[in-house]
């Protein structure tokens, strides 16, 4: 099955209903979206089946049509995080062997200086001419195991790796979401507050399948007041948001719009206190997911009802041990915790979280070593540490990787450290995450040397995305190390508390 079938079905059932909106303005009906995607697909077929087609843009209505056009052409969708530095984008384009990249005007201008991959500007004359091409035939013979999406996520070195997601993987994700979390229909909406290159974009398929309109904020970004205003304008709204975005909604002190039905939060730590404030402000509309790009949006989760106290416990919210967990295994996902030697851990014992099922990727693109290290005997090894209680509730205990999750974005310390160490005034560098009420975590760099923060900022902004830059620097005489010379990150974090 090809994922284009989801749009084909929605257009057949709901043809003249609104499908895509930019703010309060209707952009396409379902029939018009289907036709536009097939015409775009017709212009892309010359690239050949399996061609990797990249999209680099702030949230925009065109991402929806490009996504389904790429699948209709039996090619591979490769979305790029628009916050990345152009050189980081180019690394992904090179790794994927992208045939072309469709980019917004601003990103296209910056990319043109660093990449040799052909660039087409979304919405420009050439793009619109593609939309007048002969329509491609609806794909009927696609192997469900064929690659549909290359989901790039940084590795432990900071170098991006492409998780290979098939049509089957994404359909399993779609069905699990509809089974566990939300039940939209043609009178529902999905508001894209979070980046469509990642979490919010992954939720396009289940909502398209059910004929729910796709709503892209006019700003192309997340503004809490704009988001809440859109909820007043569109029916039965759902959204995927990072925990920091949820906190920003609460900080508006506005009442929950009557049409706001579901907020799925994930992609970073949601502290219990923050979650309780959100529940108090908006009520039991929250759903939590724990997943990775390698098992998109689908390892464990908490339903709306799981956030509320059981009848026996009386009124109020669920206990802290529930709210502070990552929930129960999702439909279609087999989740386990492995102790020493790879044996199943006992109840309460901390070990590595692993999962398997149709949602799990087939491997990393052109990276057999990383694939072998991550996929073993059919199990995805997440690199996260956790424990189960006797009721099957999973709690994350620590991250075996040094990832910093800030505002829902993964930031890997090593790539920052490597750039910092290029400065002649830096002898040693150690980068960690510090808890932050607004962002979840922020980046802090411990520096041994005599470089100034201004010089370090200048260097970093030449090499990596702005959002990865440390929020502050701590200058120290030495970094704590073990007997093997490895920097003790835990001790650095303790210095921040």
Structural commentary:
The protein is about 30% helix and about 30% strand. It contains 17 helices and 25 strands. The strands form six sheets. A nine-stranded mixed β-sheet has the order 2-1-10-9-11-12-13-14-15. Strands 16, 17, 18, 19 and 20 form a five-stranded antiparallel β-sheet that branches. It is globular, with a radius of gyration of 23 Å.
Distance from N terminus to C terminus (CA atoms, Å) equals 51 Å
* Count of domains: 2
**Mean pLDDT score, rounded?**
92
**Rounded Rg:** 23 Å
- Would you tell me which CATH topology of the largest domain applies? Rossmann fold
- State the name of the first-level CATH class of the largest domain: Alpha Beta
Instruction: Give the biggest beta sheet.
Output: 9 strands, mixed
Count of individual beta strands = 25
Q: Return the CATH architecture of the largest domain.
A: 3-Layer(aba) Sandwich
Q: What is the strand arrangement across the widest sheet?
A: 2-1-10-9-11-12-13-14-15
List keywords for this structure.
497 residues, alpha/beta, Rossmann fold, 2 domains, 9-stranded mixed β-sheet, 25 strands
């Amino acid at each position: 099955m090809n994922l284009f079938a989801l749009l084909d079905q929605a257009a057949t059932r709901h043809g003249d209903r609104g499908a895509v909106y930019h703010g309060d303005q209707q952009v396409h009906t379902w029939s018009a979206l289907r036709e536009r995607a097939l015409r775009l697909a017709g212009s892309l077929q010359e690239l050949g089946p399996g061609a990797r087609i990249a999209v680099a843009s702030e949230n925009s209505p065109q991402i929806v049509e490009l996504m389904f056009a790429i699948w209709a052409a039996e090619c591979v969708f490769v979305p790029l995080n628009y916050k990345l530095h152009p050189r980081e984008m180019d690394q992904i384009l090179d790794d994927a062997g992208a045939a072309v990249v469709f980019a917004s005007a601003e990103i296209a201008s910056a990319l043109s200086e660093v990449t040799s991959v052909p660039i087409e500007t979304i919405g420009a004359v050439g793009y619109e001419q593609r939309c007048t091409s002969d329509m491609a035939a609806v794909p009927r013979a696609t192997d469900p195991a064929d690659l549909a999406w290359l989901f790039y996520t940084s590795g432990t070195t900071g170098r991006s790796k492409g998780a290979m997601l098939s049509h089957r993987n994404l359909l399993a994700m779609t069905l699990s979401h509809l089974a566990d979390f939300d039940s939209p229909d043609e009178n529902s909406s999905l508001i894209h507050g979070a980046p469509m290159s990642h979490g919010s974009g992954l939720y396009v398929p289940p909502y398209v399948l059910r004929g729910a309109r796709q709503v892209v904020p006019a700003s192309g970004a997340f503004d809490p007041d704009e988001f809440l205003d859109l909820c007043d304008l569109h029916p039965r709204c759902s959204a995927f948001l990072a925990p920091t975005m949820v906190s920003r909604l609460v900080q508006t002190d506005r009442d929950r719009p009557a049409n706001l039905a579901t907020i799925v939060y994930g992609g970073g730590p949601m502290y219990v206190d923050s979650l309780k404030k959100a529940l108090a402000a908006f009520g039991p509309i929250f759903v939590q997911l724990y997943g990775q790009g390698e098992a998109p949006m689908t390892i464990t989760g908490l339903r709306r009802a799981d956030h509320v106290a059981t009848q026996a416990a009386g009124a109020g919210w669920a206990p802290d041990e529930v709210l502070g967990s990552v929930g129960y295994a999702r439909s279609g996902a087999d989740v386990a915790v492995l102790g020493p030697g790879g044996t199943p851990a006992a109840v309460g014992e901390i070990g590595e979280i692993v999962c398997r099922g149709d949602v799990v990727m087939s491997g990393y693109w052109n990276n057999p070593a990383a694939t072998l290290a991550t996929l073993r005997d059919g199990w995805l090894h997440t690199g996260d540490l956790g424990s189960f209680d006797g009721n099957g509730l999973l709690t994350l205990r620590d991250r075996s990787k040094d990832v910093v999750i800030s505002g829902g974005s993964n930031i890997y310390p090593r790539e920052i450290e490597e750039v910092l160490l290029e400065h002649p005034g830096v002898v040693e560098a150690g980068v960690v995450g510090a808890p932050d009420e607004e962002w979840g975590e922020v980046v802090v760099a411990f520096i041994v040397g005599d470089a100034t923060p201004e010089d370090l900022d200048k260097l970093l902004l030449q090499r990596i995305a702005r959002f990865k830059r440390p929020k502050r620097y701590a200058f120290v005489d030495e970094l704590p190390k073990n007997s093997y010379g490895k920097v003790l990150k835990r001790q650095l974090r303790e210095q921040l508390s």
